[in-house]
Hints:
Shape: globular
CATH architecture: 4-Layer Sandwich
Protein name: Metallo-beta-lactamase domain-containing protein
CATH superfamily: Ribonuclease Z/Hydroxyacylglutathione hydrolase-like
Distance between the termini: 55 Å
CATH class: Alpha Beta
GO molecular function, one term: zinc ion binding
CATH topology: Metallo-beta-lactamase, Chain A
Domain Metallo-beta-lactamase: 99-293
Largest sheet: 8 strands, mixed
Pfam families: Lactamase_B_2
Mean pLDDT: 95
InterPro entries: Metallo-B-lactamas, NAPE-PLD, RibonucZ/Hydroxyglut_hydro
Radius of gyration: 19 Å
Number of helices: 9
Strand order of the largest sheet: 2-11-12-13-14-15-16-17
Number of domains: 1
Helix content: 10-25%
Amino acid sequence: MAPRITYVRNEALRTVKAGDPGNKRFGRQFANGEELYTPELSNVFRWKFLTENPQKAEKKQDTWAPPVVDCTAFLQGQQDGLVWLGHASFVLRSGGVTLLFDPVLFDSTFLKRRHPLPCRPEALTNIDYLLLSHGHRDHLDEASFKLLVRQNPTMQVLTGLGMTPVLHGMAPGVPVQEAGWWQQFDLHHAAPLEIYFLPASHWYRRGLNDLNRVLWGSFLVRAQDKLLYFGADSSYAGHFEDIERQFGPVDISFLGIGAYKPAFMMQHSHTNPHEAAKAANVLRAGHVVPMHYGTFDLSDEPASEPIRTLQDVAAGGMLRGELHVPAVGEVLNWPAWE
């Protein structure tokens, strides 16, 4: 029997794309746009047991990791700025409002940091909004989430449809606002910015029986007359064109460039450096800040390959925006970028 098809969204929030019916679900599973994507376990078996990494020796010899500088002074201050904490974690401050994206602050059984965090986890206080793009464990870590909730009693979580039960299982009662794609979060007029939940081409799973039951997505922040786009985890797909068509050129884009080999395993989940450059160009991004590389060993490419490749792309004139490659913890004065 075919699964029942429904379209869902948060009816209490504004939908900014005209005529959008909401997110499509096949039974209880969210789709990537119109199509249901189901990761194949056979690909995991093929990758781990049947495929030899042709770059195995090169990867073993590549001990590169991004440089790290301490950002504690920024976290304890009030100045506007942007800080990369590693992987897909960023702190963004604008007009006294502090946003934290996809924080993973600790090692776990399967995730070991290749470089230190640029601050003590206890320094992450005064967070107004925690933005969670999806539930994969390299973007949502339970220990990190519990610590942040304890340290930030007024913090609100902004995330996708279906995430509240997951988060309340970790920290009961934490304020969570869920959105579907193309919806604007309600900040109750208290913040001098706007935040939207937008599409991404990805999937969800944290347990054995929850495949695609929680929505994934990306974020757009409008602050100080700039558009900042956080691409989260996504393969290359048509949503980048849709976002540019809806909002016009973005000023700053944060796009993933790592975890792309082998392609048969990763191509439906992440962008490689060339695809990230293409996405930035489609978005007409004035500035590009790469992420999702250098912190965790998730795939077969050598550690330094993603950023070297993207720098080569930029040097060859194939990236229309200005490339920024910050150290982990380096404070970027994004409001001053033209």
